[in-house]
Amino acid sequence: MSRPVDLNPLEAILEHRFRSRDLLTLALTHRSLGHERSSGAPQRHDNERMEFLGDAVLGLVVSQALYALNPDWQEGELTRVKAELVSRKHMAQVALSIDLGRYLLLGKGEERSGGRRKLTLLANAMEAVLAALYLDGGLEVVRRVADRFILGELARQLAARLQVDSTLGDAKSALQEQLQAARLGSPTYSIEQESGPDHRKQYQVALRLRRTDGTLTEVIARGLGGTRKKAEQEAARVALQQIAASGLESLSQCSSVDRPSDPDAADSEPAQPLPADSEPADPAPMLVPASRPRSSKYGAQKR
Prior knowledge:
Strand content: 5-15%
Helix content: 40-55%
Radius of gyration: 21 Å
Order of helices and strands: HHHHHHHHHHHEEEEHHEE
Structural class: alpha+beta
């Protein structure tokens, strides 16, 4: 079981002194420790409810910032950049940047299995910390933290990419375009595994190519996400990185496997349970700010 940890350094990083320290403690309490403490009690003592609230607060704060600072952006542009900024991948990297794993309160098993370094667990905890900040200090406190750690330089990088890459945030479309141009077939996505409670489902999706002769290749990429759509986007992103590293030839050389001729058959495989807090075997690299910007000038340049 995790030992008590001094939270003063974390409050200093966040630049917020909690009036109710219990909120921060709860935000850092993983369900593995919550179950140990509850011992069958009707009330759970972990951060899963706070993750739910933090996800909503994060979306609101980032949406407001992008809306206010980019009046010439249309809905699609706002949505794509927001998706990158609130992604679990980016939230895990934010958590790493403030060494959040050091402060987590974990059960014995989770501690032994390296829970402090698990990206899914870190992303969840970061969202819970945002909820704690909101409950203790309101939206303005969350905005200040978002300005420093979530938006900042990354928002400017994404805005610059948006000017030259219309598929930003839509890896599936970008992959489809490249495959069609090379006449390699079309991508096919199928759910391999799913896990988690209803409010925090995790889907693992496998990506294969359906060749022009109707055959399917072996799995070329996998993705994990809180919805099937997000998992598919992640799988497509991994495939694009493979293309960038090895070229389209790497996909053209994939072996074909025996599959039914029914084009929907690949999506009919039964889902299997996914272990708690599991992550893709080869998670895509995360785009992160080079530093922690302190200024509130995180707006993107107008196109």
